[in-house]
Amino acid sequence: DGGITQSPKYLFRKEGQNVTLSCEQNLNHDAMYWYRQDPGQGLRLIYYSQIVNDFQKGDIAEGYSVSREKKESFPLTVTSAQKNPTAFYLCASSTHDNSNQPQHFGDGTRLSIL
Amino acid sequence: KNQVEQSPQSLIILEGKNCTLQCNYTVSPFSNLRWYKQDTGRGPVSLTIMTFSENTKSNGRYTATLDADTKQSSLHITASQLSDSASYICVVSRYYGGSQGNLIFGKGTKLSVKP
What we know:
Chain A has strands at 4-7, 10-13, 19-25, 31-37, 44-51, 54-57, 64-66, 76-78, 87-94, 104-105, 109-113.
């Protein structure tokens, strides 16, 4: 079955620690996206990648970093510079980074502070 | 300011009843409008995508309507089931053919279907 896999489902971060959230897709999609979802808020874009070895900042990129070395993988690192990292993180992909293409989402990683 | 407003924030209905969720937007320019269903603790799943030339689109018991003149959309759920309990998210896309970095998300309507 084709889809997007996010891991881990739950993650805990200690003070001053960097943590990396995994996102893998086997849909052969060019574009991938990372969103943050907070209670009572709409999804907010952190980073997106239109193609391998290229990515752009979204609306709330500060304190986060990404890489896109392979088409199927788009890991997100939450750095210690992100002072309020507790949230539900969603990864998505689409055929191309075109506004007419639907996005397919993974089932998220919930990050909490220890 | 580009915004997507959804109402109501939450809704409780009895199984078998119909309901309608609302979405008003002030996004410009407009490319398309999407409705997603998000179960608790899961990622959103696409229900419909409508461009400005489409007035209505159905997906099983879900029917979305779009009035691009008044910038309003609705999602109608027919003969609700317990599995319809979820958050429903309205998303507006800007710039036809442009990047999906321009999606504007609503905060969602939380629907609870009771037996």
